[in-house]
Specification:
It is a single chain. This protein has 537 residues and is of the alpha+beta class. The chain is built from 16 helices and 21 strands. It has two domains: 236 residues, GROEL, domain 1 (Orthogonal Bundle), CATH 1.10.560.10; 151 residues, 3-Layer(bba) Sandwich (GroEL), CATH 3.50.7.10. Strands 9, 10, 11, 12, 13, 14 and 15 form a seven-stranded mixed β-sheet that branches. α4 packs parallel to α16.
Amino acid sequence: MDSNVQPIFIMPDDTKRTTGKDAQSNNIAAAKAVAQTVRTTLGPKGMDKMLVDAEGSVVVTNDGVTILREMHIDHPAAKMVVEIAKTQEDAVGDGTTTAVVLAGELLKKAEDLLDQNIHPTVLARGYRVAEKEAQKLVRNFAEPVLFDNDPLLRNIAITAMTGKGAEANKERLADIVVQAVKKVSTLENGKVIITKDAIKVETHIGERSDASTLVEGIVISKERAHPSMPTYINDAKVALLDSSLEIKNTDIDAKIQITDPSQLNAFLEQEERLLQDMVQKVVRSGATVVLCQKGIDDLAQHFLAKAGILAVRRVRKSDMETVSLASGALIVNNLKELSSDDLGFAGIVRETKVGDEDMIFVEQCKNPRAVTLLVKGGTEHVAGEISRAVTDAIGDVVASLMDGFVVAGAGSIEIEVARGLRQFAQTCIGREQLAVHAFADALEIIPRTLAENAGLDPIDIIAHLRSDHDMGKKWSGVNVLNGGVFDAWNSGVVEPLKIKTQAFHSAAEVAEMILRIDDVILSGQGSDMPRDIPQDF
């Protein structure tokens, strides 16, 4: 190159750029740091994280997606790993830590192969082949689950809650979870159809978790808008309003000049008439219960109480939608359009004191397939963690029934799939074989982590598990409670097949994507992308 030729700059001066091996190492380190953060929470013996935000709010949890969501991660490659947890949560509702830890280990194994000058594209292709084979293997090993097999469904729920805040009363909570899922399930042409949104989890602080109950209806953590309103309505006709029962302020600045007391009285009387008209529209529709997503004026509350209507204000959107599903009521955005056709039906609507808190119960609905799990805990943090554990259990039972298959947990399925992948690798040609072997080794991070978190020797445990699986004991897993290994299936440690298929797929996809990045270009304008992580991710 001619030394007199001036270099050409195609990007602004404040652009930061990392290329080649440095870019790969930086991205892999960020992903590994995320995985390492949640790795200690995996399994029944996993530890909790305390997350404190800028305002001092505290969350204590070992739920992977909650930890990663609360951490506010900035590094772009690390964010891609966080997306795995969110996808896993949306698709199944559980297994987020498994998916993230697996992605981190896939990248760790890939880094070793990159150091041996294996091309990233070859690695990505090898991982793709391995993941496809892993999906076949895990489906072949899976066992069917039937809708009426309550003991198996109960074990699925217990497995989901073991090691979390709900563990102390996991048997009772598991029974409630299975009942709840069955209440909202229907069988159509032999296939289970479940409306997961029809299961609401409501937390109550101040009682022991063993006092948690299943309510066949909707529980809303609100009270009547006015003390003169009835506390109990039979054969309720429910109106759902997404508009306020208040006099709206004008959109433009307005000034009213009053020069005479009579004008003031006329003005106030006009406001009163407007509010009376609003309440009369509700009365004429035939509604006896009003759930309003927005505010209700004090005077409107008085008129509703005189009409014998039970009204609740500022109800959450999610609660409005669940009541709509249960009662058949339509959510009305414009009060002028409210008619009897928009009303839903509930056999009983009542205000009941739960502990020191008033709650609204909507029961005996038109569509009985809507239930509420009233989860109780001694403190806000305990109740929150029990609620997350119960939500995971619901997700697992729903995923098992809708997919129709389950596998044993305790790391048994990962060891079995890894064994099958090593046999499959012998049929692969070229350097892709190394990537398939790396995928198999990466899967063993799950039983290895379970052993480490339980204070066991991971080397001895993995060696014992491999030996058992070579002898055909496909459900041999890590016994984190007593040490050693055990038959996970016979011990009731059961997980939905979908947790594993989704985790394998998401982890492999993100690993492949990160491996293929060889250039990170950060635009200027004051952006502060972390430099070499891991501390800044």
